[in-house]
Amino acid sequence: MNQDFAPEVTAVLDGVRDLLPTLRERAEEGERLRVIPDASIKELEETGFFRLLQPKRYGGIEADPVAFYTAVRDIASADGATGWVASVVGVHPWQVALFADEAQQAVWGDDQSVRLSSSYAPTGKAVITEGGFKLSGKWSFSSGSDHCSWVLLGGLVFNVEGQVVDFRTFMVPREKYQVVDVWNVVGLRGTGSNDIVVEETFIPEAFTLSMGETGQCKGPGQAVNTSDLYKLPFHSIFTSTIATPIIGMAKGAYAEHVEMQQKRVRAAYLGEKASLDPFAAVRIARASSEIDAAWALLINNLREEQAHVAKGEQIPLELRLRVRRDQVLGTARSIEAIDTLFEASGGRALAEGTYLQRAWRDAHAGRVHAANDPERALQMYGGHQFGHKVDPGMY
């Protein structure tokens, strides 16, 4: 697949793949620390991974997003937690590119390797004031926050009368927020998805982005970052960012399961070789089909959106809803595949240190992310077929 990408992008993907054995070896260390080891972040940075979606104006690559998702899938196939953090931290340069250039300059002007974490649920409060907003509150689940010096936070905007008038993303520098260590969980332990606390602080207008605007595939940063990359729908890019690591986990679980079964002798079945069990072969075939389908639909939908952008056309709401439909079902397919493989792997798959048991825990942890809520996404798609009104800003 590398031949489909520019040489600079191919070099990043090759570098990522060379790292996979090392990332896999560090998975237990990440679980113990409850954060991705610094060495893994440093080595991913050295491959150019975190610059894939960053504007060229600030040392980025402006790569095909399919290349980004390919790298994320591969990283997650070695370690789900590292893949998750790589995905959510690696996608943020794409959104920063939509902010006013003043904000981009503040992030990357002195150091083009600066990273950002996020927490988009509007659990904070912003009040309009002269020149910007007063922001305060607490946000949860900011994956990779220990490795970042800025954060992107979702917040409802209130006017002076106390009425909600907007929903914005606020870009906040490290000196204005606190990371609170609360991440004690059974899955995705290594992601360090801790809380962010902001005491009331002033955020200039240029350091905010209206979700109403991004819902229309717009942002002030498009005036200086003119690539088609930055004209794709926010929700298509970000929800795919959440689904892809889980597809990668399924890919890694599949590889380990096949390897285990080739060596496994089933004592309960009179020493039968698992590789000769026809039912085991059927499970492998079904699981591989689900994983392939999840990936193929994700990429095909993105390619269709890119084709519309390349022609200067508005992306149809039908397609944007289909992206969400197939994204949540892609997550479901991947988890179903992992469940099938895990259940068929025997007691040794339960051992600490195996990829399979960790992928099982990590994938189910990733499933509870709001972006993977299947009923809401499917209801919107199905309702649209019946003529129900749908807010395109949410898709």
Automatic annotation (TrEMBL):
CDD domains: NcnH. Transmembrane segments: none annotated. GO terms for molecular function: monooxygenase activity. InterPro entries: Acyl-CoA_dehydrogenase, Acyl-CoA_DH_C, AcylCoA_DH/ox_N, HsaA. Pfam families: Acyl-CoA_dh_2, Acyl-CoA_dh_N. Residues 11-108 form the Acyl-CoA dehydrogenase/oxidase N-terminal domain. Residues 241-373 form the Acyl-CoA dehydrogenase C-terminal domain. Keywords: Monooxygenase, Oxidoreductase. This is Flavin-dependent monooxygenase. It comes from Nocardioides daeguensis. The lineage of its organism: Bacteria, Bacillati, Actinomycetota, Actinomycetes, Propionibacteriales.
